Amino acid sequence: MAEEDDSSQEKTEEASSRKIEKAREEGQIPRSRDLTTTAVLMLAALGIYFFAEFMGAKLIGLTRDNFVLNRATIYDPNAMIAHLASAIYDGLFSIAPLMAILLIASIVGPIALGGWNFSGKAMEPKLSRMDPLAGIKRMFSVKSLIELLKALGKVLIILGATIWLLKFYAQDMFRLVDESVGNAIIHSLEISIFATIALSATTILIAAIDVPLQIYEYNKKLKMSRQDQKDESKDTDGKPEVKGRIRQLQREMAQRRMMSNVPQADVVITNPEHFSVALKYDPENMDTPIMIAKGGDHTALKIREIANAHKIEIIQSPVLARAIFYTTEVDQEIPSGLYLAVAQILAYVFQLRNFRKGKGEKPTYPRNINVPRDLRYDAKGKLD
């Protein structure tokens, strides 16, 4: 039994939408630091590549303006303040494109996996996070081992890429000493930019490994046991006792509404004891008769009592009563196979009304009601 209890608690089921929603509310979403690092490094490297000329020109102009000064400017304090303000503005303007790219990367990188999420619960202080024993357990956990292996993998990948780049650009770097100062500066900047882009690109491989791993760990953490699913179902839908009580109240309300329709009926057809169905037919507004109430046993008796109180004609036809009861829902039209049988009943009822008003002769009580063989049911609802 103990083994069965343990196995029943294994978290083998996928997380429900409710559990995922609660996890997001608590700030638990899949995140990849390596993906963020890749986004920032790659966009920064590409930003330097595309805006290097713009930033270089601005910085050269800034240097020229601050080192080429005439004598009057040197001895004028106001001019120095103006130069400082201009230098700050030009310096910020020169790096503004790169800063904008880094800002976008720092926002897009984290939300690329898991989407945008703000959680106040995640910022609440928790003393459990300061527990030294818990910290030691985390240090020697399987997750820490995986993080260590990931860190070693990153070092090896970047180290290998660095060695390859040094070999690739070795001849170019050796030739820098033979170039003029201007050309050497430009050439060294080109080497630096392309090397930065190449090294940043190596983080794509790291992110490609880390992202699926983070998704797997996140889904594994949120997995549920069968008992978790049952508990969540109780919390979400309510306890079975409460649900049963709600269904009972709904049935009672529906029955009360149905009983309120009985006084509008033209005729009630009975079993005569076990079933009662109330029919309404308005030739001017209806194509076919509608069953507005039905019931068995006590409900059938109540329908007959209401019918008697409102002087509604009650016709005993067991076969027809059972056929309507089992084939028609409340407020629905009767099946086409019962048109003839119901027409016989309604014709008698309408003729009887006219007779009681002093119009016409007394009609003959319907005896032989013709119900098709495929619509004849017994008391248990089975076809005869």
From TrEMBL:
InterPro entries, per the entry: FlhB, T3SS_substrate_exporter, T3SS_substrate_exporter_C
Transmembrane segments: 39-60, 95-119, 148-171, 191-216
ATP-binding recorded as keyword: no
Keywords: Bacterial flagellum biogenesis, Bacterial flagellum protein export, Cell membrane, Cell projection, Cilium, Flagellum, Membrane, Protein transport, Transmembrane, Transmembrane helix, Transport
Domain of life: Bacteria
Stretch list, region Disordered: 1-29
Keyword set includes Cytoplasm: no
Localization, UniProt: Cell membrane
Membrane topology recorded in Swiss-Prot or TrEMBL: Multi-pass membrane protein
Composition skew (Basic and acidic residues), residue ranges: 8-29
Pfam families: Bac_export_2
Family: Belongs to the type III secretion exporter family.
Role noted for this protein: Required for formation of the rod structure in the basal body of the flagellar apparatus. Together with FliI and FliH, may constitute the export apparatus of flagellin.
PANTHER family named in the record: FLAGELLAR BIOSYNTHETIC PROTEIN FLHB
Entry-linked NCBIfam families: flhB
The protein's name: Flagellar biosynthetic protein FlhB
Organism classification: Bacteria, Pseudomonadati, Pseudomonadota, Gammaproteobacteria, Cellvibrionales
Gene: flhB
